[in-house]
Amino acid sequence: MSNTKVGAVADERPEPPTAGLTIVPRSGRFRWVPVVIVLFLAAMLTESVLLNPRFEWPLVASYFFSPAILHGLATTVWLTVLCMTLGIALGIVIAVSRMSDIPIVSGFARLYIWFFRGTPILVQLIFWYNLAALFPELGFGIPFTGITFFQANTNHIVTPVTAAILGLALNEGAYMAEIVRAGISSVDDGQNEAARALGMTRLKAMRRIILPQAMRVIIPPTGNETIGMLKMTSLVSVIALSDLLYTAQSIYSRTFETIPLLLVCCCWYLLLTSVLSVIQGRIEAHYGRGIVRAGG
Amino acid sequence: MSAFMVEALDVRKSISNLDILRGVDFTVARGEVVSLIGPSGSGKSTFLRCINHLTKITGGYLSVDGELVGYRREGDKLYELGERETAAKRAEIGMVFQRFNLFAHKTAIENIIEAPVQVKGEKRKAATEHARGLLDKVGLAHKADAYPSELSGGQQQRIAIARALAMRPKLMLFDEPTSALDPELVGEVLEVMRGLVADGMTMIVVTHEMNFARDVCDRVAFMDEGRIVECTTPAELFDSPKTERARNFLSHVL
Fold first, then answer.
1. How far apart are CA A169 and CA A223, in angstroms?
2. Is B119 close to A290, i.e. CB distance below 8 A?
3. Full domain range(s) for residue A267
4. What is the ipTM of this complex?
């Protein structure tokens, strides 16, 4: 009975539209306004920066590949790579300690993060550089017993290079620890349970199952940190380590070509951060396996 | 060698002041299929997880294949075993979870060969061959290279069963294997489990699928408030339960 009724209603409907209708997008009548504004700003920038002779772009170009600058650049790059690598390794250790169920271990990790995140990196660097003022001799032994295994003059061990590495890596470790912890917590506990049920030890489950999945969450902020580290290395100029910025500074203190040399620095930093962004994109795609496809 | 695959005597588990298991006595013979049923919160899943030491017991005695899981006995003391030893014991016990828990960053076949290669040290090639056979067995040979996110719940659970079987376990534990599935996908998973029963696998199945418990299992254990209240053949439990609690529970689920 209801069948015939439905049929009757359908019969009275207007002719259904045929396929192949053209869709006309909404015509934005004022779309040209932002375009004009942007072009205007670009023209302003070209006139005032690129065509401004006071920027001395030819001078910038002549310094760009000068041996001293390239040497400073090399220092900046290896310092970034080394400190970031140490920072990530340290971060993983601190993050795992922070999640330990032994209170004194997690407490120590908290204290570490609290201290190194809570004090300015510039102060930490200067502090490491002046370590000799606190401990003229560095040694390793058993506390309160007077037994020492080795001992050396602090100024021989803590050079500007070691002070820079210590300062930057220890500081980075604290930030990376929080990033790694967030990544590990983002992985469903069932993954760990399944791994353990299959006979994996805690360490193997962490290495084979948890960390690879945590990477998806860890990579983007780590990319940020790496770019931050690249620029943060410029702070080592305060402890007289000849990185990119320090090299530029020592040149313009002689020649007074302050602006062009700072521009050289900026261009190199921009170039390197661009390269890092590309690498980050590649790594993200790699660790997105099994997730990206979920969109469908 | 013990006659029992699983032997539990007065197994207890409490977390802070909450008693979850209040003395579970339970045995499973080799090749036997037993299901655990009971209201939620009765301790079924907890007891299952105690069997492979994912949850630590706080009292009693629990052995698998005549050996303590997670402990070493000296006189009348039980010493907790180290990580590696416990892990090695767990490797012999397969487990299937309610939420599948497939490794999300690995394809179906990678999920299956992961533990044989990483835990047992099998050669990748041999493990892959074995895995293909298992995929075929669960009817998913064509999904070998799919990621879990590309599979339906039923398919994921069948892969999870294949993953557990890849370790050639002597005992399989199922923790509500069909509870997270859409109704139309339950059948395919139960089908695979029936196949295992036919192969003679020793199985303990926590389930709400009363038909499965009735048709397939040798015995059904009814759990309530941290104890096994009745444990008998499906016919006897379902048709003439002896206790009021079992009668009450069954009247709600059947």
1. 16
2. no
3. 64-288
4. 0.92
